[in-house]
Amino acid sequence: MVRKIFVGVLLGTMLLQLSGCAAHCKEPGCDESEIYQDGYCKYHYYKNLGKDALSDIMEGSGDEALSNILEGGEQLLQDWVNK
């Protein structure tokens, strides 16, 4: 009887550990479990891409910012087509 209880507790603990290791978005406070790229969910990936592009424009490297925007837009279009 004690063995059955011990085995039950052990299996329950193992299941909790496995479910606790699921990947989530790197953005603090985001619980999205579907990871898109670079450890972010799709929303936060494109949000950070836009933020990086704006900072590049403000720093004067507009060509690099335009390249990043086009690359992100191309990826978004490709995801939409493959849906």
Describe what you observe in this structure.
- With 83 residues, the protein is mainly α.
- The chain has one domain.
- Helices cover 70% and strands 0% of the residues.
- The chain contains 3 helices and no strands.
- Helix 2 runs antiparallel to helix 3.
- It is elongated.
- The N and C termini lie far apart (52 Å).
- 6% of the residues are buried.
- The model has no long low-confidence stretch (mean pLDDT 74).
> N-to-C terminal Cα separation, in Å?
52 Å
Q: Which residue ranges are poorly predicted, with pLDDT under 50 across at least 5 consecutive positions?
A: none
* Major sheet details: none
Estimated helix fraction: 55-70%
Label the overall shape. Answer: elongated
Beta-strand content estimate: under 5%
The residue-averaged pLDDT reads 74
The total beta strand count reads 0
Count of alpha and pi helical runs? 3
Number of domains: 1
Radius of gyration: 21 Å
Structural classification: mainly alpha
Topology:
Layout: H1 2-20, H2 42-59, H3 62-82
In a nutshell, what does this entry contain?
With 83 residues, this protein is mainly alpha-helical. Helix content is 70%, strand content 0%.
List keywords for this structure.
0% strand, elongated, 3 helices, 70% helix, 83 residues
